[in-house]
Amino acid sequence: MQDRLIDASAQVREATFDLIGRYIVSRMDLLENYYSILTSRTKVRKSTTRQINLSLPPPFQDTSLLVRKRVIRILRDVVEAQPRLEKVPSILAKISQRINDEDTVKKLCIETFQNLWFQPIRLTECKEFYPIPFILRFLGKLRRAS
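Predicted structure:
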């Protein structure tokens, strides 16, 4: 699996992250093991070649739009599945850093925040739905995480 994360083919890396993402969302206890790998892949590494430099020091930065978009989707799924998770502000900060990426990544980031911020949340104490934007719960924490 680790070899596929650094494969020269973007499609192989993307498929590997898709598999890891599905597993993480179904077993949140594994998030801690893969968190640094996931968040490092949202960054852009400037490269003059299409090959991946295997000697890069961590955090590894991916050149592929496919991989960056897949990782953003995984992070979004984690936040949707576990909105009270301690890492949520950090995850949202990582996603927000990609707003200035390529158009397709930018669009995905904007859609992610629109879906998260403007959905009603369930207040377990009241057992009712309230249209409180998601952002209000994490705005202070997000600011501290970035």
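Summary: The first strand starts at residue 121 and ends at 123.
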